[in-house]
Amino acid sequence: MDKQSAIAHLPGTYGFALFLRDLGLSDAEIAIRLGLDEKVTSNLLTVAEAKLRQLMSSGDNGAGSP
């Protein structure tokens, strides 16, 4: 599974946050768009990246919910 397909399979905020990061937005800009604190957004992105790695390595669609 390629990266964009894997991101599309991530649930809700995880996938959207990584999509925004791939567009070149900073964590601060992503936080503003998500309406979250920057630290919360940074943590969310860390979890999203871990879920993305897991999904890409397993090819599984069960990434879990935020």
From TrEMBL:
Keywords linked to the UniProt accession: DNA-directed RNA polymerase, Transcription
Entry's Gene Ontology cellular component terms: DNA-directed RNA polymerase complex
InterPro entries: RNA_pol_sigma_r3/r4-like, WH-like_DNA-bd_sf
Name of the featured protein: DNA-directed RNA polymerase specialized sigma24 family protein
Organism of derivation: Flexivirga oryzae
